[in-house]
Amino acid sequence: MKKLLYLLFLSSVTYTSAQIDNKNLAKEREFNSWSVSVFGGGNLMQNSDLNSFDKGYFTPGYDLQFQVNKQITHAFGVIAQFQMGQTRQASTIYDNTPWGNSFTGRVHGKTQYHGVSLLADINASNLLRRVDSKHEFKWAIHLYGGVGILGYKAKRNNWYGSGENYEVTLDQKMDEKSVYSQVGAGLRYKLNKNFDFELRAMYVMTGDEDFDASGKVAPGYTTAADTHPTYGGDNMLTVSLGLHYKIGKHKEAVQWVSPLYRPLAAPAPFECVDEDNDGVCDQWDKCPGTPEGVKVDGSGCPLDSDGDGVPDSEDKCPTIPGPITNGGCPEKILRISGDDVATKINTYLEGIEFEYNSDKIREQSYDKLNHAVEVLVANPDYKFIVEGHTDAAGNAEYNQKLSERRANSVIRYFANKGVSTDRLTAVGKGKSDLKWPECNPVTSCPAWKNLENRRVIFKEVK
Known about the structure:
Elements: H1 2-22, H2 25-28, E1 31-32, E2 34-46, E3 53-54, E4 57-58, E5 61-71, E6 76-96, E7 102-123, H3 124-127, E8 139-157, E9 166-172, E10 179-190, E11 195-205, E12 235-247, E13 252-253, H4 338-349, H5 366-378, E14 384-389, H6 396-416, E15 424-430, H7 447-453, E16 456-460
Parallel strand pairs: 1-13, 14-15
Antiparallel strand pairs: 2-5, 2-12, 3-4, 5-6, 6-7, 7-8, 8-9, 8-10, 10-11, 11-12, 14-16
Helix pairs in contact: 4-5
């Protein structure tokens, strides 16, 4: 409730401030706020002595509505409505006369009515709409409520249900004694800039016990007014289809626009000043004065792919982290323990790439493999299992063979660099041990996770 009240307040404040800033909202805001509407549909008498559905009887009447609408804010409007129609209703009664004659019959009634009312219109969808949404706003839920005065002529036929001879039970004129109210909701669809379509349901409360043509209670008799004792007046449900025509020269109506939209003035054209010509405007450049030709990231600072603090333009090993003192390359490897050797090699092998559906190693992975070779040459006393892994694409048998070929491809590369193959054993794991198990199938994961599933791992043989 607090959120609803806040949004109502915010919508009103937005409207008021725009009105002050623009001096004349109707002319300057570029929105249409007037429309006319026509609705047609059916009605059902309910909570009355005579109903539109009674023991197998179901005959709805008709209802017409003509409206002039004014949208006050993006979320609130008022409606002046003229309404007319006719209901049809009936009831089965049991008569107990003073002479002891008893019989069951059905009484029929119909009521011709016309009324004028003033309704409040709350655009609930615009009230609760996300103002950052980029989608076109074409559906909206509207809530209605209001009061008016109603005139009607209620007629009822004889108790035997001939349906021909109707007599007037009440001819109610439109005056201060015929106040009625109604509430309801509608689902509106934007057809185009000129027309909207709406399905609407309204519950009409007449406040009058004679609206259904049941007549007055007769002491000593069971009459139509006694069949379904009701309190507070006869009610009616209307369901209608309607068409709205939006009046005005502007391209959009105010009820279809974001509550926070205020086109007060066109924004000044943006000028991007880039003194160092690195492609990042000076307003956002965190590293101004970058030498020409140096690749930079989104903040305008020199690109550092491996994150070792040495810019790619100066890094002799741009894809492998290393200290500044060694030009961004790893320092010479000393003898370390077997577990540490495997960990070091796995760090270097992380992200090595193969040609698609092949065991051919891509050239951009050679630097990583060369550093892994340095670790193996510096520690000749250890033996390792070289595990090949694939992603979840393809069948298990094919992936098993592909992972074996890729593991052997890495061993061949090491052998060509002087590493003894007696120390290395290739094992294919296929897709049986995914680094990211949730990537089965591969369509359930982003590309980078599937890439990490396609890997080669070293494990020490103890």
